[in-house]
Amino acid sequence: MNSLRLRLLLWVLVPMSALLALSAWASWRDAGAQARTVEDARLLASARMIAGQVAWSDGVLLATTPPAALDLFASRERDRVYFQVRELGGDLLAGWPDLPAPSRITASAPRYLQDRFRGDSVRMVSIERDFSDAHGRTRRVQISVAETRGSYQALRMALWRPALLHASLLLVLALASMLLGLTLELRPLLRLRRELLRRADDDLAPLRAGELQRELRPVVETINQQAARLTRQIDVQKRFVADAAHQLRTPLALIGVQLHDAASQAGSAPLQTTLEALRRGTRQLGRVVEQLLSLSQAEGQRASAPPRAPVDLAHGVREVMLELAMLAEARGVELGLDPLPAQLPRVLADAALLHALVYNLVDNALRYTPTGGSVSLRLESRGTRVELSVCDTGPGIAPELRARVFERFYRVEPAPGGGSGLGLSIVREAAAACGAAVRLESAPGGGLCARVEFEAAGAAQLTGR
Fold first, then answer.
1. How far apart are CA 192 and CA 20, in angstroms?
2. Do residues 392 and 368 make contact, with C-beta atoms less than 8 angstroms apart?
3. pTM, whole model, 2 decimals?
4. Considering only CA atoms, which of 462, 415, 453 is closest in space to residue 435?
């Protein structure tokens, strides 16, 4: 159970439920005391009314039962009422002869008794009175009245139920208020979660803790500190890669020149084959070094958020096509540009990163397109966006792998183009730094289409206002 909301609710629900149970028990006891008080008062009133009807008549002690004495017990529960009037140590004057009664009580105080009579639980009161006749004779009479407990239980429940309902309602309201409060108070934390989910995988910018409660701010501060440490480590690694790549450029260039000179000299066929293989390997290694430098530059520019300026995308595309024309010819791939729209706005981008983006897109397409295939470029204006499409007739990329090909050094197997797995990583970083969006789609005739959407430069940006 890892839900903070549920755990807090349980921390409140358990003790409050225990308090509710204790309150219900106390209310039940108090309701019983009140119902017993009412019951005892009714029994005592009936006994006194019956005692008021005991009198001497012709030297004989007689007892009559007034109807009002029994009307006191009228109720919907239809309780049975029993009474007994008996001389102490003498005859039964009225009532039920087998009704149990206390052996002796004081004349001044009634005696209450709870017993069973004829299979029912009864509550009984007994009082004693002295009666004297005209000749001075005195007789002590005991009057007992008993009632079954239906009315008592009904009254007790009627007194207890509202208290229980009120306490239960308070518990429900308290839990609902707490749940509402938790939902409202956790909103800043949920907004922080949504912000993190919207971020790119490599976005380690500090989180804003201004809206969070004081108790949660240390958590965010700790996350920011950890992110800062990771950023420093990543920066060190990036600088190392950039510095290493930069240092490798000159030795690789010298090796390439020396291999070219060695290949131009006479030698055996196996030696020439070996030298040609070394030259290809050196060119491949040099290309990897250049791509590492381009990737490092794109990542650095993206992190620093360089200012974007209006750039002629069509001009940049033509430059890249001229640079890669020899590669296209060497691989036997047709490289072409569709007719441009009549009005093609400039795009907001960084010129160097834009060149790296287009170059790597076209280079990647050329290297993965087999001999006899084609690579076509298209520029389209779509309202406030300008789209660049680079489509090839190569093997394409399966939909489930299109997200992974932007990772560094990831290559789709088999990789006929001899790529290093860095081209699309450079494209992604350069596009992010230029505020563009990249997506990969299947080409209509087979192959792959890479589409990049740039933000078009507005009139105010073109005039510098």
1. 38
2. yes
3. 0.47
4. 453
For residues 350 and 426, give the distance between their C-alpha atoms in angstroms, rounded to a whole number. Answer: 14
Structure tokens at 78: 């239809």
What architecture is domain 307-463? 2-Layer Sandwich (3.30)
Bond from prior residue into 15 cis (ω within 30 degrees of 0): no
Domain spans in the chain, listed from the N-terminal domain onward: 4-157, 210-304, 307-463
Question: Concatenated DSSP letters for 369-405?
Answer: SPTT-EEEEEEEEETTEEEEEEEE-S----GGGTTGG
> Could you tell me the two tokens for 317?
């595309």
Helix or strand or coil: residue 148? strand
Nearest alpha-carbon partner for 376 in 407, 440, 419, 333? 333
10-residue stretch averages of pLDDT, the chain, 465 residues long: 74 85 91 92 89 83 79 77 86 87 72 89 90 80 90 91 89 85 80 80 74 78 83 66 58 66 66 66 60 59 64 92 91 92 88 87 89 93 91 89 79 58 78 88 87 79 45
CATH fold of 210-304 reads Helix Hairpins (1.10.287)
Q: How far apart are CA 441 and CA 387, in angstroms?
A: 14
- How many angstroms separate the CA atoms of 252 and 298, rounded? 23
In which element (H, E) is residue 266 found?
none
| Residue labelled with tokens 């794109």 | 298
254 three-state secondary structure: helix
3-state secondary structure of 216: coil
